[in-house]
Design a protein that fits this description.
single chain; alpha/beta; 8-stranded parallel beta sheet; two-stranded antiparallel ribbon; 12 helices; 15% strand; binds glyoxylic acid; binds magnesium ion; magnesium; lyase activity
Length: 338
C-alpha cells in the first residue's frame, strides 16, 4: 500500500519501491461533527462505520461558550469508542486563538493514541506548521506516544494560498491540505456570502451576434475555486501529500454539491469534507473511481505491456503518459478495495 508521501510519486519505470512511512488509508469523506453537542456524540457509533474519516470540530461553527465543552466532548468520544478502520481527526482552533494551546495539550495527552490527524485552520505559511510540529513532538514524548500525529492544513487565507508550496513541504507530518472556501472568500474580500460552491453572477457570456446584442446569448457559470484547487493540487503533488475539497454549505443542493466534488476529484483531489449525512454518499460515489473508468484503465495498462510505446484502443492513441494516468485510476481502485 502507498503512503500519502508516495501517493504522487512519479511512476518511473524501474524505480525502487518508495519507503512506506504511513500506510494509505481511504479519506474520501472527512465527516464533521460538533463534539459539544450531546446528540451528535451519541450518534458517533452509528456514523463512524459509514465514513472514512470522522472529525471532531473545535473551531468555527462551535461558539466561544462551547469551546471547552467541545474539547471535553471529543475526549469523551475518543475514549469511549473503537473506530476500527475509520480515522479520527480533529480540527483545532486557529493558532491566534486563546483556545488552541489547551486543544493540543488536552487532546494529545488524553486521546493522542486514538487521533490520526490534526487539522490546523487558517495556516498562513510554513512557520505555522513548524510551530504545531514542535509542540506535537513535545506532547507526544511526554505522553509516551509511539505513532506520530499527522498534520493537515486548511488553505483559507490569501497568504496561505501565496505560500501553499512551503506549507505542503513544511514537515514530514504533513498529510494533506483542504480548500477552505468560506474563510478564503472573506480573506480575499470576495463579494460572496456562502460556503463553497459556485455563484450565479460569476459567468461568461457568449459573444453578441449581429444586431442581437442582448437576446439569445448563452451564459456559462464559472468555477470560483478552479485556480485555488489547481494550485493546491500542484503543491500537494510536488510534496507527496493529499489534496481535498472543503465544505459545501448548501446542504439541499445535492446536484451542485456533486458537481463541485467531481471537479475537485478530476483535478486531483482525493476527498472532501461532509457536513451532513446526505453528503456522505455523494462523496463516496464521486471519490471512488467509476467501474467503467477502472475497467478502461486496466485495459490500457494490459495493452501497454511494459508501459512504453504507443497502442491504439477503440481509435484512441495511448502511450506512456496515458499509461501513467491509468495507473493512478487503477491503483486508487485497488487501494479503496483493499
Ligand atoms: C472552512 O473552514 C472554510 O472556511 O471554508
Ligand atoms: Mg474556515
Amino acid at each position: 500500500m502507498r503512503s500519502p508521501k508516495d501517493f504522487f510519486a512519479p511512476l518511473a519505470l524501474g524505480a525502487p519501491e518508495p519507503v512506506r512511512e504511513i500506510p494509505f488509508r481511504p479519506s474520501r469523506m472527512i465527516h464533521f461533527f460538533d463534539p459539544s453537542n450531546e446528540k451528535m456524540r451519541t450518534k458517533v457509533p452509528s456514523i463512524a462505520p459509514k465514513v472514512d474519516v470522522l472529525l471532531g470540530n473545535l473551531e468555527d461553527a462551535v461558539s466561544a461558550d462551547n469551546k471547552e465543552a467541545a474539547r471535553n466532548g471529543l475526549v469523551e468520544v475518543g475514549k469511549a469508542n473503537d473506530f476500527g478502520q475509520t480515522q479520527l481527526w480533529t480540527r483545532i482552533n486557529s493558532l491566534d486563538s486563546p483556545w488552541v494551546l489547551d486543544d493540543l495539550i488536552t487532546l494529545v495527552t488524553e486521546i493522542g493514541d486514538k487521533l490520526d490527524v490534526i487539522m490546523v485552520p487558517k495556516v498562513e505559511g510554513a512557520q505555522d506548521i513548524h510551530y504545531v510540529d514542535r509542540l506535537l513532538a513535545q506532547l507526544e514524548a511526554r505522553a509516551g506516544l509511539t505513532k506520530p500525529l499527522l498534520v493537515h492544513a486548511i488553505l483559507e487565507t490569501a497568504s496561505g494560498v501565496a505560500n501553499v508550496e512551503d506549507i505542503a513541504g513544511a514537515s514530514p507530518r504533513m498529510q494533506g491540505i483542504s480548500l477552505g472556501p468560506a474563510d478564503l472568500a472573506a480573506s480575499r474580500r470576495m463579494k460572496t456570502t456562502r460556503v463553497g460552491g459556485g455563484h450565479p453572477g460569476y459567468l461568461v457570456r457568449t459573444d453578441p451576434t449581429g444586431d442581437d446584442v442582448h437576446e439569445g446569448r448563452t451564459t456559462y457559470q464559472q468555477d470560483l475555486w478552479h485556480y485555488t484547487v489547481a494550485r493546491m493540487v500542484d503543491a500537494c503533488a510536488m510534496h507527496g501529500i493529499l489534496p481535498y475539497y472543503g465544505p459545501f454549505g448548501d446542504i439541499k443542493d445535492v446536484v451542485g454539491c456533486e458537481d463541485q466534488f467531481r471537479n475537485a476529484f478530476l483535478l486531483g483531489c482525493v476527498g472532501t469534507w461532509t457536513l451532513h449525512p446526505v453528503q456522505i454518499d455523494i462523496a463516496k460515489k464521486v471519490f471512488s473511481p467509476a467501474a467503467e473508468d477502472v475497467a478502461w484503465a486496466r485495459r490500457v495498462i494490459a495493452a501497454m505491456g511494459d508501459g512504453t510505446g504507443a497502442v491504439m484502443i477503440d481509435g484512441k492513441m495511448q502511450d506512456d503518459a496515458t499509461y501513467k494516468q491509468c495507473k493512478v485510476v487503477a491503483e486508487l481502485a485497488d487501494e479503496l478495495a483493499a
